[in-house]
Write a structure and sequence with these properties.
The protein has helices spanning 12-21, 32-37, 49-58, 61-71, 80-83, 188-199, and strands at 2-5, 26-29, 40-43, 75-78, 103-107, 118-123, 141-146, 148-152, 158-163, 167-174, 177-180. By secondary structure, it is an alpha/beta fold. The strands form three sheets. Strands 2-1-3-4-11-10-9 form a seven-stranded mixed β-sheet, sandwiched between helices. The protein has a two-stranded antiparallel ribbon with strand order 5-8. The protein starts with a strand and ends with a helix.
Length: 201
């Protein structure tokens, strides 16, 4: 069973729908006992870094996430859910993230012909092998919606990158933690394969 964390923030229903298309059993929850029993957990996210952290703390899901990750079972952050796994974000100075991974979350720089937020399809490069991308060709396109992006401290955890006026760390993997800056649930057949790969880890 895949637990999708419900903390009043984000693209929860679209993530749920994508897993259902794959025939996977899901539950939307903030119940600690349900999360603990789950085989996989997903942290979606749309909105601001500060609001999301406030909601996670309100429901004490920050503690539940850290306990679940410590159990060694697969955990996936999507979009803002990726950013929350890190220490902090330029979007919300003074607000601490979950500190599960190390890196900076910074604003996409303005540039000629670039619109921020970055909304649209971009291709992926694979600097390191990532289990989320098994069976998916390098250069495949996925769908992004974001104004801030990750610069991971440790390049070895970066499994996918893209370019949008800067070099964006688009996906990371460390032990049982997986995360995507893009939206696999909105990325057509490529995104469904990514979610399938996660569900089968």
């Amino acid at each position: 069973m895949i637990a999708i964390l419900d903390y009043d923030a984000g693209n929860i229903k679209s993530v749920e729908k994508a897993f259902k298309i794959l025939g996977k059993e899901t539950v939307l929850t903030r119940d600690f006992s349900v999360i603990k029993k789950a085989d996989h957990v997903v942290l979606p996210g749309v909105g601001s870094f500060a609001d999301a952290m406030n909601h996670l703390k309100k429901y004490e899901l920050d503690k539940a996430i850290k306990e679940y990750v410590a159990s060694g079972k697969p955990f996936l952050g999507i979009c803002l859910g990726l950013q929350l796994l890190f220490d902090s974000s330029e979007e919300s100075p003074g607000v601490e993230g979950l500190h599960l991974l190390n890196g900076e979350v910074v604003r996409i720089p303005d540039g000629p012909g670039l619109k921020v937020p970055h909304i649209g399809w971009n291709s992926l490069d694979y600097p390191n092998q990532g289990r989320l991308f098994n069976g998916i060709d390098e250069g495949s396109f996925v769908y992004f919606v974001h104004s801030y992006y990750l610069k991971a401290k440790d390049d070895s955890i970066v499994t996918a990158t893209t370019e949008y006026g800067c070099h964006i760390h688009a996906s990371v993997e460390k032990y049982n933690i997986f995360a995507c800056q893009f939206h696999p649930e909105k990325s057509s057949s490529v995104g469904l394969q990514i979610l399938k790969n996660f569900a089968e880890i």
